[in-house]
Design brief:
Blueprint (H helix, E strand, L loop, with lengths): L1 H15 L24 H4 L5 E10 L9 E11 L5 E12 L3 E13 L6 E13 L2 E13 L4 E10 L3 E10 L5 E10 L2 E13 L2 E12 L11 E12 L3 E9 L6 E9 L9 H4 L11 E9 L2
Antiparallel strand pairs: 1-2, 1-14, 2-3, 3-4, 4-5, 5-6, 6-7, 7-10, 8-9, 9-15, 10-11, 11-12, 12-13, 13-14
């Protein structure tokens, strides 16, 4: 509750004191079109660096973490000389599980394929998560394809370094002399997810985005599932005035079961941007929190 009050207080303070007092909306910049999810790159991408700070708050239990998270970060966009492609930096820090932290540091590249709203992109992320006194680390690889009709995203997650954190030990006394100890760990898993999505525009200030897809995580050595986790995920996103997004997310698999979550994602407009710039620079959608599972190890004295 405290995390959500802090987030709502920040939103209220920001709205009370706008950064750009002389902003005047110019209708000619409203280039949203019902038949495309992107805009003309020649008129929308700025010539200089673009800074997009954001706040994010997610409520509800997730896969291998409880109580959601709150965080913030920024996205820095650098158009390349041709203006038909750009590089970006995406940095985020979250507070997870009432005090533990997680972070993401990513770089990516996107290029417009034509002037009809198609774009392709790739990205690489370094993720970390603090849990049980241990820091989990992973590398994320992603690919994106945006078209006027459907968007495609694929993300891979590869743990690096020490993948397991000690959680507990339980002793089983078999006789007066012989015993066995069971050690429980939380272990990061490699995995992949795929998503197909599409935007539906109802007016120039409201957009509904629907997406769904499968995911897989390897559970070799897991105490609860030895043949991998296969599940499905879906999300619905309402976008208001380009910068405020409300997400409903849901995942299901036979290990974590059903996990519904709600999320607020708010981009801070530090400069007077054409409204369609947000369509040309969509946020990277991936798992920001490293997913772990229970694993066990037995030791005995006989």
């Amino acid at each position: 509750m405290r995390k959500w009050l802090i987030l709502l207080g920040a939103v209220a303070a920001w709205n009370a004191t706008p950064l750009v007092a002389d902003y005047v909306y110019e209708p000619e910049y409203d280039c949203i079109d019902e038949c495309t999810s992107l805009c003309d790159p020649c008129s929308a991408v700025p010539c200089g660096q673009l800074y997009l700070p954001f706040f994010v708050g997610r409520g509800g239990d997730g896969r291998s973490y409880d109580n959601g998270f709150v965080g913030g970060g920024f996205m820095v966009v650098q158009p390349l000389p041709t203006l038909a492609n750009y590089m970006f930096l995406d940095v985020q820090l979250q507070s997870v599980d009432d005090g533990n932290f997680a972070g993401n540091f990513g770089v990516g590249w996107r290029a417009f394929l034509d002037s009809c709203g198609s774009m392709v992109g790739v990205n690489v992320f370094y993720d970390n998560r603090r849990e049980l006194g241990h820091t989990f680390n992973q590398i994320g690889l992603g690919g994106e394809l945006f078209t006027p009709y459907v968007d495609f995203r694929m993300n891979g997650y590869i743990p690096v370094g020490d993948k397991s954190a000690f959680e507990s030990r339980e002793r089983f006394d078999l006789t007066d002399t012989f015993f066995a100890d069971r050690f429980r760990f939380q272990t990061a898993m490699w995995g992949v997810d795929l998503e197909l999505g599409r935007s539906f525009y109802f007016c120039n200030s409201l957009c509904v985005y629907l997406a769904a897809g499968p995911y897989f995580f390897d559970t070799s050595g897991s105490s609860i599932c030895a043949d991998g986790i296969v599940g499905g995920m879906g999300r619905a996103t309402l976008t208001f005035c380009e910068s405020l997004q409300l997400d409903f997310l849901i995942t299901y698999d036979r290990i974590f079961r059903t996990k519904p979550q709600g999320q607020v994602y708010w981009t801070l407009p530090f400069c007077c941007l054409p409204k369609c710039i947000y369509n040309c620079i969509p946020r990277v959608f991936r798992n920001p929190i490293i997913i772990t599972t229970d694993t066990c190890k037995f030791e005995k004295n006989f």
